[in-house]
């Protein structure tokens, strides 16, 4: 018998085509409730969600992220690393918080945001909704911070669209690198990684062609095109402006 949870996870895809129908408030509340139960480092709960339903504000986020398709979503959710919350706890305990001034602090915020995002996507899919992770909110982080009125010690790590998927326009599930180059026994195997990259480059090329998107590159071309440059160059300066830094 097929496990419905595993089937949902293995069939996950980024949904960029929506019907325009409204996400029910009761469903959104359930998705948020499930997301809040995601684990966080030391139970610090240093993640805050900012849920945007106003269409003009979603359109502005789409503009700042450089991804016009975001505007088609019914809702947009920002996953914010929130050490303002833990600073309040430190104040209550009569101590000074310094975690946001460490590399570990930034990693904690990013990791916890990623865990929350994955939980959010799974919960949304369980109720029949579609999502797409949006790293583009880091493209113009200072403007996103201003739009969402985020205080110091917070940073918008990632976002997600949310809407009713147009199932007639869903992409096929995108293939991944060979599993043997993804999950390794006991130790890292660089040779398997290199072999996996070479084979996956051809697999992804064929997948794009099958979608009629012949203009897209293979894995090597697409990845190198982004990672050969600092593609969101405002992140470090904006982190510092928000009170984040490496002092350790």
UniProtKB/TrEMBL annotation:
Keyword Transport attributed: no
SUPFAM superfamilies on file: FMN-dependent nitroreductase-like
Database matches in InterPro entries: Flavin_OxRdtase_Frp (IPR016446), Nitroreductase (IPR029479), Nitroreductase-like (IPR000415)
Classification via Pfam families: Nitroreductase (PF00881)
GO molecular function, one term: oxidoreductase activity
Annotated Gene3D superfamilies: NADH Oxidase
UniProtKB keywords: Flavoprotein, FMN, NADP, Oxidoreductase
Signal peptide: none
Domain Nitroreductase residue range list: 10-163
Entry keyword annotation includes Oxidoreductase: yes
Family: Belongs to the flavin oxidoreductase frp family.
Protein name: FMN reductase [NAD(P)H]
Highest classification ranks of the organism: Bacteria, Bacillati, Actinomycetota, Actinomycetes, Propionibacteriales
